[in-house]
Amino acid sequence: YINVLLQNGFELKQKSKWFNAVSGYASESEINQIVLNSFVSSVDVVGTFAKKVDDIEFNSSQTGFDNPLQPEGVHTFNYGSAYTQLQISNVPAVHDLGFNGAGVTICVMDAGFDNLPHIAFSNMNIIAKWDFVNGDPNVGNEGDMGEGSHGTATLSIIGGFQEGEMIGPAFGSTYILAKTENTDSETPVEEDNWVAAMEWADSIGVDVTSTSLGYLDYDSPFTSYTWQNMDGNTALITRAGDLAVGRGIVVVNSAGNNYDDPTHNTLGAPADGDSIFAIGSVNSSGLRSSFSSVGPTFDGRIKPDFMAQGSNDYHASSFGNSYSFGSGTSFSCPIAAGICALILQKNPSLTPMEVRNVLRSTSSNTSSPNRLIGWGIINALTAINSVTVPVELTSFNAFYREGIVNLIWITATETNNYGFEVERRDDYSNYQTIGFVDGNGTTTNRVTYSYDDKNLANNRYYYRLKQIDFDGSFEYSNEVQVNISDLNDFQLYQNYPNPFNPSTKIKYSIPQNSFVKIALHDILGSELKTLVSETVQPGTYEITVDGSDLSSGMYFIRLSSGNIQKTLKISLIK
Questions:
Q1: CATH number, domain at 494?
Q2: Which pLDDT tens digit goes with each residue over 191-232?
Q3: Would residue 254 count as lying in a domain?
């Protein structure tokens, strides 16, 4: 279909699988030809937004004069001038518990990121970047298309880290960066860039998106959105945001800086989305910032959803390693998105709506949500403490000795845990239940479980656990493998996935108590990392190789024990 459009003179800009649509450029005569194709159901004008970076967000005269200093010795980290913007939402206390967003992938969509060499990003794990305005991987300023300082600021607020200067709530998360905004108002494509970026983020598998942009006014001669259009169903980007939530992504967006109008909402799309978290702004005293947009949506739903500090926020600037202060819901949004990452770190199985319910039940205005501040200021500590993890399985291993496969697994916490069904299969059969081990109900203590599978013939066996709650709900563990015939020898199994990015898993088998070293080497044979260096009991084990700090290429895994040497080739593609 696209090839036919190209033959009709269509110049392709973006493709959308979710909407089964494309966008691009065509003359009136070319459009008249395109609509004759039977596969074309409609043709609409893609609007150009007249969104400008609000002056309020970059007022150089602003300082942090009203931001209290961090008391000495109270928290694990020194937050510098960023302390107040996190403390008002109790983020430092969550960091004290060990949560930093690790294991959660966040997509930050903005007008560009012009200072990624800033020291605040020196330890940030950025795995992908794309400029949807210009169609290249350069997310900085390019031909005046994009206000790169804006993205630099928002990215630092959500995940920057320079102790004693500023720390973001989700400094341990993995990031992808999307440049979607063209602040040159003559460019005729805008809304579809955001949709394309969201689909790209979904393809990578992100957990959270943070967008500090909102759209309301079109450039002339196009018709602008009105407050009546903020109904959750009109704007394309709003509908795309809700689709993303349906695919498991927590979509967080700034509510807007359009102040209050007592007669109607002042939101900008996609903050009007039913499932999108619209974030308003408060000052360091917890009072609503005067510029923060209000609801309700045209169809009567409460917006904004939640509040975080957006007045006098500390952030990285475009110049060297300097910092500055700014105000706007652009800055409250990444704080809220980072807190969502902290929640997902504690329980990755939560759906976006479950995350929303956690925040609704723990924020400052939960009993009387309204059009000015929604459910109120997010309290990260209360939210984290309210999140339960049904069963947190920290390890599951299989050991073979003297004709018995010994399964051992460890839980860190349990909630309503009835017990575990032990299941086994081989290469020629499906899983069957072979035993049951009682659980410990609800406990925060570390518990070790075991099960012995006896009288087995030589074969390759696979085991998994079916963890069952008292209400009958269940979930499966990862699979472990034992090859009884192979346990007469050392084995190093092929990694999965391969090629990989950024991590891969490798299994290995040990026939007897042995000191084992497993190391990662480059193609020249130089050792880069030691993965295992310890005495190991007989059995099959699994390790994870993290390549986030490595360049694309071929690497080798080498297992050594005494005179035994096993080597495996792995491939990292970024």
A1: 2.60.40.1930
A2: 788 999 999 999 999 999 999 987 776 556 556 678 898 999
A3: yes
